[in-house]
Amino acid sequence: MLRKRPYSSLLHKLARRKTVPKETKDSSKLNRTLGFVDLTFLSISSMVGGGIYFMIGSGVKDIAGPSVIVSFVLGGFASLLCAICYATLGSELPKAGSTYTFAYVTLGEFVAYSLGWIGTAGNVGNVAAIARAWSSYFDSLFDHAVRNFTMSQLANWTAAPHPVASHPDLIATSLVIILAIVASAGVNFSSRVMNAISVMNISMLLFISSVCFYYGKVQNWSNEQHGGFFPYGIVGTIHATTFCFYAFSGFDTVCSAAEEARNPSKTVPRALITSVIFVLFLYTLTASGFTFLIPYYMVDPDSPYSSALRMTGPKFMSYIVTIGPLFGLLGSLMSSIFGMVRMLYAMADDGLIFSCFAVVNKHTKVMVKAIAITQTLSAIIALVINVENLLGFISASALISYSATSVAALFLQVDSSSFQGGSTPLVDPSDHDDDTDIDDVDSDEVTVMVPVVTESSHSLKVYFGFHILWSFCLAFTLIHSWSELKRGKIDAFIVLFIDFFFFLLFFSLFTFSYSKILIKNGLSAKLIIMPFLVSLSLFLNNVFLVSTSIEDLIGLIVFLVIGWAVYFAYGIRYSKESDS
Q1: Which of 58, 56, 140, 60 has its CA nearest to residue 322?
Q2: How far apart are CA 19 and CA 162, in angstroms?
Q3: How many helices (H) and strands (E) does the chain have?
């Protein structure tokens, strides 16, 4: 009898995929209380916050100028493509965990763990970054009195190394602690708070846009002496899209709440698509109004809206506008905490990280221990780390998560026909009377799915793997060789042609194999559009990713290495899939 080679056993453990057991809503430890409106406002509050208020100033003045409007449209379009993929997966797998759970079912344990780890790290950093942004805005209402007092009386860290802030941010730390207590009070209470914040935030952005268009002038879009609409060129517009894409990050929080949603197979995808389209409209309107109000070279990056209105409109408007970011950032903070602990809960429930993160309080039905641990870490980071050093890392982690979810959505359609027990209907018609309208069924049931790798799906993944590689190479060439391409350098065009040729070749091979599997397994021909949507989504994400600084990518790798150490020391041994 042949002994199994150690590396073969290791690869099997890394590649094992999650089985989703048949369950009903009563088997979940969490309460299913969230409806379509709750989920939509949860998604909107996740997106509308730090991005539009905190980053538009530097994006307009230093990166893109008035063309930041185009950047928001591109970022929103890329987010919409990702949201479609999330909607596909959310309807098929209504489980807590979002990206992590989707990847575990389709891409394997190691990939899922890595995505869950960097997603959690990104959320921890996101909470700290938004808390510091909120603190800065709040302090500006009092001429930075809290900052001045802290630096003069408590601690002055201006001589500290680069990542450390100039002073400890006591407001940001206190805010994280207060919101952690709110999140621990239960999903019903926290959702009501987020709904109220979202309504206030939407109203404020609509008010800001109206004021900007009233006091602005069209010459601010077409000032040829200062570069016109594209003062930093197309490259600047694309670079700003990376940060504008960050402004849309957070919509995936809806999928993290799927296990607490009523009829998740319908409410989750509808809330996702509705919220992203609405926020795309809202951001485009706000960015258009802001660049219409003031010349881009006069923008104050620290307080863009209030300073612009002080220069061009009534001064009292600047004070009203300053309140807006407080609501927006508050909503983003709440939703980040909400999504983060549910991803940790899913990972701990699968045995990949410490079981304390899966403990659900019997009274509030939320993960109080997970909230306490993660928000203590966020509070410490908010206290000592400068917010600008976290934004690139957060954007990069979001891009990787969205790309992985796009791939997972694509392969779920193929692999579902290879699951033992067949495809995954969320509602089993045999369980209901013939007179029952299928639309009225509370579809909280998920049948058992045990992944089985077939030869056709294996070759499909090989083709798509090479397609992803050449998609990255094509994006890298376009961004980092743009100046050479504009000057007509032949070697740059040769590299671009090679990248595009192999990008198209492997996409064609993949699409052909994908269509054969659809036909073979009798799946809907409408699914043939999935490779095109996913390929476009991946390419746009790669364009944004290669625009990220090398320091942020190094930070991401360092966090991954730390996470892998935890996985090989704990997760790989205690994974519940090892018993399957």
Answers
A1: 140
A2: 45
A3: 23, 0
- Confidence check: pLDDT of 464 > 90: no
Q: 3-state SS of 456-502?
A: HHHHHHHHHHHHHHHHHHHHHHHHHCHHHHHCCCHHHHHHHHHHHHH
278 SS3 class: helix
Which amino acid is residue 338, in one-letter code? Answer: F
Q: Cα-flanking dihedrals φ and ψ of residue 420, to 5°? A: -65, 130
**How far is the CA of 40 from the CAs of 35, 117, 126, 371, 490, in angstroms?**
9, 26, 21, 23, 50
Query: Which span out of 23-27, 396-400, 472-476 was modeled with the highest average pLDDT?
Result: 472-476
Q: Assign residue 522 a region: left if phi > 0, alpha if psi is -120 to 50, beta otherwise? A: left
**pLDDT tops 60 at residue 439:** no
As to burial, measured by CB atoms within 10 angstroms (0-12 exposed, 13-18 middle, 19+ buried), residue 251 is: buried
Enumerate residues 6+ apart whose C-beta is below 8 A from 337: 123, 127, 179, 180, 183, 371, 374, 375
Cα–Cα distance list, 93 to 103, 209, 256, 443, 536 (Å): 11, 38, 11, 11, 24
The pLDDT-based confidence of 90 (bands split at 50, 70, 90) is confident
**Cα–Cα distance, 96 to 18 (Å, whole number):** 13
Q: How confident is the model at residue 440 (pLDDT cuts 50, 70, 90)?
A: very low
More confident residue, 53 or 573: 573
Residue owning tokens 């807590």: 96
Q: CA-CA distance, 124 to 116, in Å (whole number)?
A: 12
**pLDDT digit string (tens) for 235-262?**
788 878 877 877 787 787 888 777 777 8
Tokens for 315?
A: 């001064």
- Number of residues written out for the chain: 580
Q: Does residue 422 come out as left (phi exceeding 0), alpha (psi in the -120 to 50 range) or beta?
A: left
163, 168, 169, 175 alpha-carbon torsion, rounded to 10°: 110
Residue pair 95/80 in contact by the 8 Å Cβ criterion = no
Q: Which amino acid makes up residue 345?
A: Y
Q: What are 337's two structure tokens?
A: 């905490």
CA neighbor of 244 nearest in space, from 71, 64, 70, 125? 71
Paired with 450 in beta bridges are 420
Residue that is written with structure tokens 């790669």 in the block? 542
> Where do we find the tokens 């538009």?
56
pTM, two decimals, is 0.75
List the beta bridge partners of residue 20: 449
CA trace torsion 166, 169, 172, 173 (10° rounding) = 130
3-state SS, residue 446:
strand
Residue type at 369 in one-letter notation: K
Amino acid, single-letter form, for residue 244: C
Tokens of 208: 């800001």
What is the rounded distance in angstroms from the CA atom of residue 129 to the CA atom of residue 373? Answer: 17
